[in-house]
Amino acid sequence: MESPTLWLTLLLFPFGQQFSNPKSFLLISPYLIQYFNRTVLYPLRLSRNKNAPSNGFSVSIALITFGFSLLNAYLQA
Question: Which stretches are transmembrane (predicted)?
Answer without folding.
Answer: 56-75
